[in-house]
Design a protein that fits this description.
The chain has 215 residues and is of the alpha/beta class. The protein has a single domain (4-213), classed as Rossmann fold (3-Layer(aba) Sandwich). It contains nine helices and seven strands; from the N terminus they run H-H-H-E-H-E-H-E-H-E-H-E-H-H-E-E. It has a seven-stranded mixed beta sheet, with helices on both faces. The protein is globular, with a radius of gyration of 16 Å. The structure holds S-adenosylmethionine. S-adenosylmethionine is lined by residues 1-2, 7, 22, 26, 29, 48-50, 53-54, 71-73, 76, 99-100, 121-123, 126-127.
Length: 215
Amino acid sequence: MATTEEMDRMYRWTRYVYDFTRKYYLLGRDRLLCEMELKAGDRVLEIGCGTARNLICLARRRPEVLAYGLDVSHEMLATAAAKVTSRGLASRITLRHCFAEQLDHRGTFGLDEPFDAAFFSYSLSMIPTWPEAIEAALRNLKPRATLYVVDFWDQGGWPGWFRAILKGWLDLFHVHYRPELIDYLQKLDEKGVGKLTLQSVAGRYAYLAAFRKSG
Ligand SMILES: C[S@@+](CC[C@H](N)C(=O)[O-])C[C@H]1O[C@@H](n2cnc3c(N)ncnc32)[C@H](O)[C@@H]1O
């Protein structure tokens, strides 16, 4: 498990330029927010919410839902809280410090019921203990609710030199493409835990997974 100190060290300064710089290479995030199936009153959780960029977009786009975010970095959460407050969304977006692997809707957010939807946006590629993070997310979702993931894929539609440069760049930030993660979700599907649908973003630059939990 990455520690809070490690993540704080990584984001202490980059958090100030994070949204601007990541706009160009964290592809598929807006598509994910558009495609999420949500109803009025739904509670939606982002796991590894960073600067709350996605939660703010979601809250603006879907005024009828309540948004929740957790992150392990206090530095990122400080930026997230300032942005949420300055945009007047503090009553609709709740932020908490928590490890993805330790999520508990009661303990972490004081909620009586599990979430109606949850998503990981470019965070599972940074979480070494990603199976535990996925298990915790599924445990904290209602039956038939969907867990969404957007993250780096294998860039299969791109030239080799591009893949090599991207991999070198991502290594600097402890980000790793995890082919075994998609296999893991497929195995859960085969076991009847839920139903997986997978889409490619920009020639397999990234993938968009939707895992609908069984009833
Ligand atoms: C690449 S950033 C993505 C931020 C945001 N989801 C986005 O799309 O802009 C990954 C985030 O995951 C957080 N993170 C890393 N490991 C975590 C863990 N074990 N539990 C919770 N958050 C974690 C980091 O602190 C960071 O804010």
